[in-house]
Design goal:
Alpha-Beta Plaits, 26% helix, alpha+beta, 9-stranded mixed beta sheet, Pseudouridine synthase, Structural Genomics Hypothetical 15.5 Kd Protein In mrcA-pckA Intergenic Region, Chain A, 3 domains
């Protein structure tokens, strides 16, 4: 008897987004299995014989994996389509490969490095807090940052989504008007850096992500993209594999 696979995992492998995004598609009644709408994300399917459609489009597993690094400009939202009609990263990045999706998020007011892929499994692991994948940002704020503020950022600050803590913070430049920080995080909570700094009394003037795991922004220009190198991809996989093995030891 053919092995069966959970519907949300199958959709992820077909390039319809992260597992969470695929669960949302199912719950919204946008997925059919053999002509019938299903709403249970735990539905098991036979990927060899069952016919799965998303809004009428037959779902087929992606055979060729694609991995892209891109520079998201400010004022673009990181999503395929926006219900409010705001311009998306797919409007900003021209001639992208088809059927890829962003890994994680980057706020509309922020800019810099994002990764896109059709590899749902790797995307899920890179975005999940469990794997502690580093994201590095250059952040300019109003006012002079003190040692006390640096300690607070490292020690943990309560924001809307819970306790937020920087893995590392380095003061790059400072005067009486503004300060430039390099901040490393291992989670992707919504507007995490902005809320942390505003709690400390510093409004963020600009925020640019310059590294995600083993991939650096480098000299990539706003609105441009490139394929990941073999070494970058190998580095991303090594990061999540090592994190997975560490969790097994706990």
């Amino acid at each position: 008897m053919p092995a069966k696979i959970r519907l949300n995992k199958f959709l992820r492998d077909c390039g319809f987004g992260s597992r969470r995004k695929c669960e949302q598609l199912v719950r919204e009644g946008r997925v059919q299995v053999n002509g019938e709408v299903v709403s249970d994300v735990g539905t098991l399917i036979d990927e060899e014989n069952d016919v799965v459609k998303v809004e009428g489009v037959v779902a087929k597993p992606q055979r060729q994996k694609i991995y892209v690094a891109a520079y998201k400009p400010r004022d673009f939202v990181v999503t395929r389509s926006d219900p409010e009609g705001r311009p998306t990263v797919f409007d900003a990045l021209k001639d992208l490969p088809r059927d890829i999706f962003p890994i994680g998020r980057l706020d509309k007011d922020s800019e810099g490095l994002i990764l896109l892929t059709n590899d749902g499994k790797l995307a899920h692991r890179l975005a999940h807090p469990r794997y502690q994948v580093e994201r590095v940002y250059l952040v300019e704020v109003q006012g002079r940052i003190t040692d006390e503020t640096l300690e607070r950022l490292m020690g943990g600050i309560v924001i809307e989504t819970g306790l937020a803590r920087a893995k590392s913070v380095r003061l790059m430049e400072a005067d009486e008007v503004s300060s430039l920080l390099k901040i490393t995080l291992t989670e992707g909570k919504k507007r995490e850096i902005r809320q942390m700094l505003e709690t400390c009394g510093h409004r963020v003037k600009s925020l640019r992500r310059i590294r995600f795991g083993s991939v650096s922004l480098g000299d990539l220009a706003p609105g441009k993209w490139r394929y990941l190198t073999r070494d970058e991809l190998r580095g991303l996989r090594r990061i999540v594999e090592e994190a997975y093995l560490e969790k097994l030891k706990e």
